[in-house]
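Below: protein 1.
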Amino acid sequence: MPGDLSDGRIVIVGASLAGLRAAETLREEGFTGSLTVVGDEPCAPYDRPPLSKQVLLGKAPADTTALPMRRDPDADWRLGVAATGVDPLEKRVMLADGESLPYDRLLIATGTRARPWPNPDEASLDGVFTLRTSDEAGKLAERLAAGPERVLVIGAGFTGSEIASACRERGIEVTVAERGPAPLVGALGGTLAKLAAAMHRNHGVDLRTGVTVTALRGDGNGRFTGADLSDGSRVEADVCVVALGAV
């Protein structure tokens, strides 16, 4: 690393895989200055793929998927506080707790978040989940372990398909609502998507394609009870997982 880049203050916003590997690589390449990593989740960087597999199946707790460190990046970890903005003139990162961090160079590695259900009131019903973070995976795994009669999954992409598979392995009835003609059609193409649809149905998944969910319904106590579909049908369920991709 050139001498004029080997010191100073670097702030990395995002404490997941990209932020961790960037911090490690900076040290490996000879950076000797101040290094700060900011993350809005309170836990150390962790692996996300197991959340929709081993965690939902009850084979691993949500807090045991930490990413291994290749080396200690000797960073100041600011976890559990979100970065809310950047002042590029003063070169400061603004934090949700009111503090600000000075930097000479800034790496924004914030990744994605789960796309939320568009109606906030419906999204706040007890029993409606998204699945992106360790906390969300832990709460959903607890709800599945309690043995709901039926789970509704909105979206049949990779995450939605894995959730449906986990439900069936747990012996839980599951309905998947997918607006496309088949699961994963955008990622796999028409032929393999038809095979994926057959695998779902052979595994006992109630797969509804070519439909959208128009409303989530709850009871007088704010608990999710089911959903209305665009074809006029209604699905009665105890749990809903919104798997509409990432933002």
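Below: protein 2.
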Amino acid sequence: MGIYQQIMATVVGSFLLGIGVNGFLIPHHFIDGGILGLALILHYFLNVPTGFAMVGLSLPICLLASKNERTYFLSSLFGLFLSSIFIDVLAPLRYQFLISPLTSAIIGGMVIGIGVGLMLYYKTSSGGTDLLAKMISKSLSLNIAWIIIFIDGLIVLAGLSVLNLDRIFYSCVVIVVGGVTTSMIEGR
């Protein structure tokens, strides 16, 4: 697997992440799990740019990866910054797709899952909990999709204090669809 393929996977995956977040999650105030979910919560309630918050929250995990997963560290750092830039630059997409909450949750989960899965398949990530899940998956020989779903579920549970139950339900749909899609792409 060449560096060119890895760079292209990072660019395309990050772009898809930006589309999924802005086109399908933010319009309905859904959250994803992991670092992105925490960044979305900060965005909704403190008006912090989502990509900026994602970088700040992900850097400690990237530093951990620099010691434990050197092969993923640099590519994940690049993926983190690129994903964050795409998430903030593609903000104008936020109200372009006016579709039902369920459809938005399913499509958003699929688009994000394809982006994340593509990056993981090419040994890179957007940093954050995707990188953490990759490290856990490798060390415990567990399916990465289940690890992502578990971590993401914890973040959605944290969102219970700030989001209503409808948004929590649809956020769970985003996470499950995203996790299964990630597994299908990453595991091929």
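The CA atoms of residues 27 and 95 lie 6 Å apart.
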